[in-house]
Write a structure and sequence with these properties.
The protein is of the alpha+beta class. The chain has 9 helices and 22 strands. It has 3 domains: about 90 residues, Nuclear Transport Factor 2, Chain: A, CATH 3.10.450; about 150 residues, Nuclear Transport Factor 2, Chain: A, CATH 3.10.450; about 110 residues, Distorted Sandwich (Glucose Permease (Domain IIA)), CATH 2.70.70.10.
Length: about 475
Amino acid sequence: MAEEKQGARKARKQAICRKAQQQHSHFYERFAHWSFHQSDVVEPIHWHRERWVLAGMAMLITLLSGFIMPAWASAMRPAAVPEAHTVLKLALPKVAEVSAPAPAVDDWQVVRVQPGQTLSDIFTGRGLSMTDLQKVVDASGPAKTALHHIHPGEEFDFLLGSNHVLKGLRFDQDDANRATIRLDGDQPTVSIQPRDMDMREQVAHGVIHSSLYAAGDQAGLDAAMVGKLADLFKYDVDFVQDLREGDSFTVIYDDVYRDGVRYGEGNIVAAEFINQGQRYTAYRFKKAGGDYGWFSEDGRPIQKSFLRIPVDFTRISSTFSSARLHPVLGLMRAHKGVDYAAPTGTPIHAAGDGVIKFKGWMNGYGNFVIIQHSGTISTAYGHMSRFGSERLGQHVTQGQVIGFVGMTGLATGPHLHYEFRVNGTQRNPQTVTLPKPELLPAAQLAKFKSQVVQPQLARLTELDARIKLAKTNAPANNDN
């Protein structure tokens, strides 16, 4: 009986399952692989879409747990108890008094003088009036001379107010002093400040290959210092005709520094010049009267009694000759002087100290001047375009301008006709033996030789030895 009931329940259960499968046939077809029936054969797992979904949900739950649990743990942590602090009273240092602000620095505007400019041009260019210029001149005091004679390259510093009112002017009174004029006070004031002047000794050596100036430039000398060197030896060397390749010079000189900056060239201290094998020397020496001069090693002044050439010329157009075809007359005549061709207006200098014996027109010579230097020696100058300001009978000094080059009289071009006369007879100015200047007095001569010649000569000799050694050790230049 029990078995019949059990069989009936099983049959009813199977009928219910068949009915459910018929009503939901689409579900069973889709998920037919879902089965909880334990089979003897275990098939390998296949990752279908449903398994991927389940795995993703599990992963999401795991991540959310990772975020939620720490936050929950922090929320459950007890609140921190604040630390107790003890406040101590400390003595603070006193606050230093605030110092007064630094005074404002004046804004000086620098203006450099250009060629041809006047002081009024400079003031006008800064937008200032002639009234401002007059105020400066009136207040300049001992510096007034510098305002009346300005030169290109000089500097004027202007101090202007916000409304362009002139408050001050600063300029060089001379090489060693600066003048400052202030107009921004109750009364104009002028002050003179000395500049820091410094002499720094330099040494240069040069060998002439083309010209003196080219050799000087190669030796590091500027044109002004080369000019001073030529001026020292111009009484013994004709730098136009006498120079030869291989001539050399050694010079010890000063450079001038002002406020730590090179300002210009100073004076030559000692120098030697080798011309065609002949050695000439010059040493600077302070004479008994306090002024300086240059002397040769034997103690005679470098400045000779006469200039060998009294004009800066471009060429010699005619030499001294006993017979020459006159360019104007076309006749053979003696030429008793030397003609130095130069541009019209070139200054002509007195060859030596003397008195003007003749000044006027002379047939053939045109405007003509004769200077008497002693009882036996005189010099003559012809063809001048115009005379200097000297009067007949006036004393002149060596180098003083007595006239200007021209072509008056019988001349085919501008030049100076120069004669050197001894007892009224013309001598060749290029070869005549000029009288030697006198030696220094005995006491000064001894001082000159001991304090100047001996130490400077030793330096020059040492320099020459170094130069010769350098030439000897120089590698030979082998041209292939």
